[in-house]
What does this fold into?
Amino acid sequence: MFLLFFLGIVILIMGILENEFHRKRVNTIPIRIHVNGTRGKSTTVRLIAAILREAGYRTLAKTTGTSPKIILENGDEELIRRKGPSNIIEQKYFIKKAFFKRCNAIVVECMAVHPETQWVSEHRLIYSTIGVITNVREDHQDVYGPDLKDAANSLMATLPKNGVFITADKKFFPLFQSLAEKLNSKSILVDPKEISFPEKEKSENILFKENVAIALQIGQLLNIEENICWKGILKARPDPGALTIYKLKVEGKLLWFVNAFAANDRESILLIWDKINQLLPEKVVNSPKIAILNNRNDRITRIVQFASILSKEITVDHIFLAGQNTTLSYNQLRKNGYPSQQITAVNEKVDIDHTMEQISHFIEEEGILYGLGNTRGFGLRLMDYLQEKGEKL
It folds into this structure.
C-alpha cells in the first residue's frame, strides 16, 4: 500500500513538473495562433504560416486535415505518422518541437472535436495569442448536436484568453464576441468583400476568400505589409484536401475532375457547385455531371446528408458509390427518389483505370466528375492516380 501511495505521489509530482515545463516552453513563443472552424482550417493554417515565413518569422505550423503535416520553417513538410488514433497530446509535442527549434511563431490547426477536448487544447496546451474560427457549418452533429448553434457553442471553446479573436462567420460573431469579452480578448470580424484579389492569379489558395481574409487580417495585426502577405499567400503549398481541378483523358474522352472530398457539409458543397460553374468554360458546365461518393463507416450522418443533397439539391447524371457502407448510401439515395439505374457501386478490388473507364461510358465527349464524401481509402488512391495521369489546372 505504501509503495502504491509513493508511486502516486511521484506521478503527481512528475505531472506538475511537466506542466510547468510546458508552460515555460509556450511562453518562449510570442506568437501562437490556434485555428478552429468547420471548413478551411488546414488551408488557413497554411496561408497564415506562409505570411509569417515571408515576413521573416521562424514559424512552425501543423495541419490535421486530409493529410496531417508539420510545416517547417523553410516551408518543407513532414508527414505526421500516428501509431494509433489521433490525440490532442500531439499539440504538446508540437510545441516542444517549436521550442527546440527556437521558433517565435506557431500556427496550429485544432484537432479536437468534442467541446471538452477543444477547451483543453486551447486553455491547457496552446494558450493562443490569436484565435481563429473560420466558419460554422453542419458537421459532426453526432457530437455537437443537431443545430448550427450547437456547433458554434462547441467551436468557441478555443477562444483565447487575453488575446485576439478573428472570424469570418458573420452569423455567430455576436455570440463569439460575447465570450471573447469575458475572456478579455479583442474580437475582429473580417469581410472578404473588402479585399482586392489578384485578377491574374489562379492559385487554389485564393478560391475561398474568407480563408484569405483571415490570413491578411493576421498579417495586418502583426504590422506585416500587404504586399509581403500576398507573396506568402501565393507561395503557400495548397493543402491536399483543398479544392482542385484536373483534366484527364479516358478512352478518348475528356474528364474534368473536381476534388471536393474535403467538403463535408451542405453549405460547402453548394458553394463549390456554384464556384465550379464560374471557373469552368460554359460548354463544360453544361456537360454531363457524375459524382463519386466515397463513404466512411464512422460518418453515418454524412452518408445520410450526402444522399439528400445529391437527390434533392444538386443534379448529377450518375453516382458511383465507393468506400464503406455503400448499401446504406444506396438505400438513402433510393429513399430520396434517386433512380437506381443511375447508381453504380465501385468494386475497390479493381484498379482506378477500370473505374475511370466505367465512368467514361456515361459521357460522349467530355464531362465533369465530382469527388465527394471523404478522402480515406479509395479517395486517396484516386487522388494519387490523378496526380500521376491527370493535368492539374
Q: What stands out?
A: The radius of gyration is 22 Å. The CA atoms of residues 138 and 148 lie 6 Å apart.
